[in-house]
Amino acid sequence: MGKHYATVAFTELNQQETIIIQFVLFAELLYPIQKGSILRMKKRAEGGDAAAIRNVGCYYATGNRGLSRDFPKALELWLRAGGLGCAASYYNVATAYYNGEGAERDMDKAKYYYELAAMGGNVLARHNLGSFEGCSGNMTRAMKHWMVAAGTGDGESLKCIQDCFMHGHATKDDFERALRAHKEAKDDMKSDQREAAAASRRSTSA
């Protein structure tokens, strides 16, 4: 199944300028999905594995792996996993409130749970907080969130910063700093991936 993304674009009119504000909804599962894995995943969840609890919630949300679609159940599991320290679960809770799935649509709760997810290190939540601020016309606060997210390698946040620069809501220095931070983060990711691949080859050849 791999990555599970959906995006919604918003247009914020500010002093007769148009800025595209992007929300990223849902994220990839924390464990790869394999045939027959649901029983093992449920067992992990029953043992208190926060990532597994979150994944089972994703299965209920989408009606996958033989489970009937049950968004309220998914929301319950995500809240439980979030309480156990899974920031990605709070991200999904926020998205559920944002979409009004499994609960009544509530923008205040959506923002609250995005904040919890962002404090836990969830980059997509940090990006969405920037989008919340951008849609409210708080471009300075939006930029702060997007700068943090871009500095971890988030391309959507970098695009938002570029859009702000083009419309006069960010300086050239802001954009250049974001570009440098984004590049450094991506380079670090590639380095980590190369090291992991090399370690895997060494272990299989030993």
Descriptive notes:
- The protein starts with 5 loop residues before the first strand and ends with a helix.
- The protein is globular.
- The protein is built from nine helices and two strands, in the order ββααααααααα.
- It is 64% helix and 9% strand.
- It is mainly alpha-helical and 206 residues long.
- The chain has helices at residues 38-46, 50-62, 71-83, 87-99, 107-119, 123-135, 139-150, 155-166, 172-205; strands at 6-14, 17-25.
- α4 packs antiparallel against α5 (107-119) and α5 packs across α6.
- The protein has a two-stranded antiparallel sheet with strand order 1-2.
Notable features of this structure?
206 residues, single chain, mainly alpha, 9 helices, two-stranded antiparallel ribbon, globular
Indicate the topology.
Blueprint: E1 6-14, E2 17-25, H1 38-46, H2 50-62, H3 71-83, H4 87-99, H5 107-119, H6 123-135, H7 139-150, H8 155-166, H9 172-205
Helix pairs in contact: 1-2, 2-3, 3-4, 4-5, 5-6, 6-7, 7-8, 8-9
